[in-house]
Amino acid sequence: MSTSERRVWIRALVVALVLALVSVGCGSSEDTGAGDDTATDSGETADTSSDESEAAEEEPADAGDEATAGEAGAIKVFLIPSPSAEAIKSFADEFTADTGIAVTFEEVPYGEAHQKQLLAYEQGNGAYDVAQFDNTFLAAFGAAGVMTPLDDYLAASAEYDIDDFSVGQQDYGKYEGQTLGLTLSTEPMIQWYRTDIYEELGLEPATTWEEYYSNAQAVEDAGLGDGQIVGFGPNVSWWWMTLVWSFGGEVYDDSLQPQVNSPEAIAATEYLKSLLDVSPEGAVSASGDDVTNKFISQDIGAMIQYSGYYGVTLDPESNKYPGLLGTAPMPQGSADITHLAGWNIGIPADSANKDQAWQFLEFVLGKSNAKAYLESGAAAIGRKSITGDAELTAEQPYLLQLNIPESSRIERYPQLKVWPEMDVAIVQHVSDIMTGASSVEDGLNDLQSTLEPILAAENG
Amino acid sequence: MTSTPSRSMTTARRRSLTSLVLTLPAWLMIVVLIMVPIAVGFYLSLRNERIGGFVPPQYVGFENYRSEIANKVFWEAALTTVKIMIIGLVIQLPIGVGLALLLHQSLRGTRLFRSVLLIPMLLTPVAVGLMWRFMYDGDLGVINWLLETVGLGRIQWLGDDLAALFAVVLVDSWQSIPFVMLLTLAGLAGMSTSPLEAAKVDGAGPWQLFWYVILPMLRPVLGVILIIRIIDTYKLFDAIFILTRGGPGTATQTLGILNYNTGFNFLATSRAAAIGIALTAITIPLYFLWAQAARIEP
Q1: Which CA distances in Å does B282 have to B30, B175, B202, B230, B259?
Q2: In this complex, is the C-beta atom of B142 within 8 Å of any C-beta atom belonging to chain A?
Q3: 3-state class (DSSP) for residue A219
Q4: Is B117 touching A (CB cutoff 8 A)?
Q5: Among A187, A290, A185, A195, which Cα is nearest to A236's?
Q6: To 10 degrees, what angle do helices B215-235 and B72-104 make?
Q7: Cβ–Cβ of A284/B249 closer than 8 Å?
Q8: Residues 6 or more apart from A77 whose CB is under 8 A from it?
Q9: Given an 8 Å threshold on Cβ–Cβ distance, is A424 in contact with B266?
Q10: Alpha helices per DSSP H over B61-205
Q11: What pLDDT is attached to residue A54?
Q12: pLDDT tops 70 at residue A180
């Protein structure tokens, strides 16, 4: 090899090495999770403002093996990658051994999951016998009549025992009075706080929003960190709607007229904006996942966040404060509400194996396996038998927050087909208010005008 | 004697047939991968299809186009796209050309720098977006840390309208400058040295050389770069999606992001197709400009 050829080879090797290092660098930065939306997969809470972990999710779906039909038939289960999906899969072998029904799984990332389901249901050829879906799609599925009502199955099932859920939670999978999905995870918006900081300052978890703000102010005044965190970025609708409901307002009324510039909504938005003063600076652009990642990696007194993120806090590599995170019910405003989110799972109407599908759901999500299901890593389901289990609650104190009192009105994401458009409109306008691009009143008036045609299209 | 013309005709026909057969795979690819999707997209844009609509879609003519034209959000997105394009070009062209002129000199280490400077262009936009998102983080990001270290205040890169727009342009520029540099370098390498030498003999200084000799000779290359970068900006999606999702508010919502939201978030397939066709229509004249620029003789 001549000297010049050798030089060329050496240069090529250097470039390849640099490229490899850069690629590894990028890869590891994706893995840190700090500010990375992939944390959604660790927490259960679905990102409803179109999935933000799109890029990270674009890994090939686990198509599962094509199982041969068991003695009693076979079912195909559609799952969305999440700890709940992993837990469901872990029961498959036992179920097949017990019943002779073979189970195959198809996993599709959140970003494409509902589109794929809708296309499959439009074709109506029974592609899936069981399907996991986000509660925000319950209305779309319900309006299209693509899910099987489960009420008859529920009424006859002592094993599932619907009475093991509080009254409000029994309705979580209901659309126009029919249960179209079982609860696959119970994720109320709750208050999280740093026990060490609160103890040092003699603070108690807040019961009202005024207390929540003053606690946050106290943490800042003491120089122990930022007062609190909520997300003002691409998922600001999570917190904004929670506050609107809590301040006694509503996003729209029974006749689908938006109510976002009501005095209650204005007060809620002003409060949300005031929280910027006691938040880390980066909260202004923080997504839902960023909020949790910041809370477990920076000194922040408190956080309002879905309980489904509990799983993220268990990861010792991301949580800098293990054992120092307490949970409490969300502070209350003039209305006693609980903002409830979480997955549903149901039986598509075009399934040819509905009874076998129900057997599977009953087996995995029934009362007998409820504890094993939780212990297999799934986000908790708010069964009374789980939230009232002293042993479990001693291990995972946050489970107590899933025991939603019957006095608290449960609010869910709007059960409307046009919710994705509403969500984008809310995020864009509230975000403008938070960054100061528009005043609270102007921003909400604009939002009101934007939502009018969107809501009008619901019945169009 | 009489057989000569017919033989030459047969030969010509055979050649033409051979050319057709040889180019057929390319034509097939163009038809299947470009023409058919555009045609289907156009057909879709004339209907009111919606994923999960569960009602038979109907022909609605140009209604989707009319509603998008009347939609304030569409024009805001178009304006944002143009803003990103103009600011981007103002940054990318001078820096890219400047680097190319520097690297064209036979200085020590030039070849190493040339290789290193190309790296951003080789990375996937999603990875680049994620990397920059960490760097832009308001609390933990390295950029704010650096700003604080030198005594400047923090900037909420992704939480302020203007800063977010600039943040997006910066990431796009970081990835695109090597492209501008590479093409300019190619232009410089192919340039005749005689005019330069003649200008030097006539006593032209470095600035005069650049302004009156090099730049006019680079004009065709710069034209191509300009058109390609404009088309690229229209397509810009990945980095914005990862960095800001079009926010805060709609500050960085480009036509690409609007198209994505309409199609995959709102599931309004036909409306999204109309936006897509509009985007295609905007870029077609740019293609002809590009073709013209590529033909210009220096």
Answers
A1: 20, 24, 46, 11, 14
A2: no
A3: helix
A4: no
A5: A290
A6: 140
A7: no
A8: A88, A103, A104, A105, A106, A128, A129, A130, A131, A132, A360
A9: yes
A10: 63-69, 72-104, 110-122, 125-136, 142-149, 161-189, 194-201
A11: 37
A12: yes
Q: How many residues does chain B have?
A: 298
- Comparing CB atoms, the residue among B127, B137, B241 nearest residue A26 is B127
Measure Cα distances from A220 to A205, A224, A277 in Å. 16, 6, 10
Note the pTM of the prediction, 2 decimals.
Answer: 0.81
Contact with chain A for residue B129, Cβ under 8 A:
yes
In this structure, what DSSP letter does residue A48 have? -
Residue A74 and residue A128: Cα distance in Å, rounded? 11
Do the Cβ atoms of B248 and A111 come within 8 Å? no
- Tell me which of A34-38, A207-211, A219-223, A364-368 is least confident: A34-38
d(CA A243, CA A305): 12
Planar angle of CA A343, A348, A350, nearest 5 degrees: 170
Short-list A423, A424, A443, A422, CA closest to A270: A443
B134 contacts A234? CB cut-off 8 A: no
Place of tokens 């006095």: A407
For position A23, what pLDDT does the model report?
Answer: 45
Least confident residue range of A68-77, A244-253, A347-356, B133-142: A68-77
Alpha-carbon torsion angle B279, B284, B286, B287, nearest 10: 130
Contact list, B262 vs chain A (CB under 8 Å): none
Give pLDDT tens digits for B69-122. Answer: 999 899 999 999 999 999 999 999 999 999 999 998 878 888 888 888 889 988
pLDDT of B114 reads 82
- CA dist A259 and A337 (Å) reads 18
Of A39, A125, A161, A157, nearest to A351 by C-alpha is A125
**Tokens, residue B79:** 């304006």
